[in-house]
Amino acid sequence: MKIVLIGASGTLGKAVAHELSVRHQIISVGRKSGDFHADLRDIGSLQSLFEKIGTVDAFVSAAGSVHFGPWNELTPEKVDIGLRDKLMGQVNMVLAGQKYLCDGGSFTLTSGILSEDPIRFGAAASLVNGALESFVRAAAIELSRGQRINIVSPTVLQESMPSFGPYFRGYKPVSAADVALNYSKSVEGRQTGHIYKVW
Ligand SMILES: NC(=O)c1ccc[n+]([C@@H]2O[C@H](COP(=O)([O-])OP(=O)(O)OC[C@H]3O[C@@H](n4cnc5c(N)ncnc54)[C@H](OP(=O)(O)O)[C@@H]3O)[C@@H](O)[C@H]2O)c1
Known about the structure:
By secondary structure, the protein is an alpha/beta fold. The longest helix is centred in the middle third of the chain and has 22 residues, at 76-97. The protein has helices spanning 11-21, 43-53, 76-97, 123-140, 161-164, 176-188, and strands at 2-6, 25-30, 36-37, 56-61, 101-110, 148-154, 195-198. It has a seven-stranded parallel beta sheet with strand order 3-2-1-4-5-6-7, with helices on both faces. The model has no long low-confidence stretch (mean pLDDT 98). Strand 4, helix 3 and strand 5 form a beta-alpha-beta unit. It is 40% helix and 20% strand. It has six helices and seven strands. It binds NADP nicotinamide-adenine-dinucleotide phosphate (NAP).
C-alpha cells in the first residue's frame, strides 16, 4: 500500500513508520521533517501536497500539539492551540484527503487516554481527544466509496516518560512499538469507526 504518514519523525510516528514500512510504501510528512512538508493547521498546504502525491491507500496522522498547564492559568488562547493543531489539523487531513483516498482506503487519527482518564493540567488535551473520537465515530457513517476511519488512543508512551512522567503518575506506560501495532490493525484490517485504546 501507499501510505501518507503525517508526523513520521516523532516519538510515536517513528514506531508507526517502522511497523508499516516493512510491508508498505511510506510517504512521510511533517512541517520540517519527512519526504514532504505541510502543516496540519493549514488545509491549503495539505491540499497542495495531496494533489502532488495523488491517490493513496491510507492517510495516517501521528501528530498534533496541545497545551498542558495549570487550570487557573488556562486561557482561550491556550485551549485554541490544541483546537487548531491536534483537533482541526487531523480533521483537515480527513477533509482534504478524502478526494485522494482510494475506494476502501483508510484514515487513522491519534487521540489519547485523556479523553477518558483525565489528569491535572490536561483539560485542553481531554477536550481535543474527546472531540476527535466523536468526529471519527460520526465520519465513519458518512464517508463514501467504502472509505474507513479509525483512531488510536494511547496512554503515555514509555519513550515519553522522561518528559511526561510527572504528569502521569499511576499510569502504566506502553511502548511506542506496541501502540504502532494498532495503526497496522486500522490500515490493514477492515474496521471503521473504531477507537483502539492502548492502555
Ligand atoms: N508521546 C506520548 O506519550 C503520547 C501519548 C498519547 C498520545 N500522544 C499523541 O500522539 C501524537 C504524537 O505525539 P509524539 O509524542 O510522538 O509527538 P512528537 O514527538 O512531538 O512528534 C510530532 C510529529 O508530528 C509532526 N508535526 C507536529 N506538528 C505538526 C503540524 N502542525 N503539521 C504537520 N506535522 C506536524 C512533527 O514533525 P515536524 O516537527 O517536522 O512538524 C513530528 O514528526 C500527538 O497527537 C500526541 O498527543 C502522545
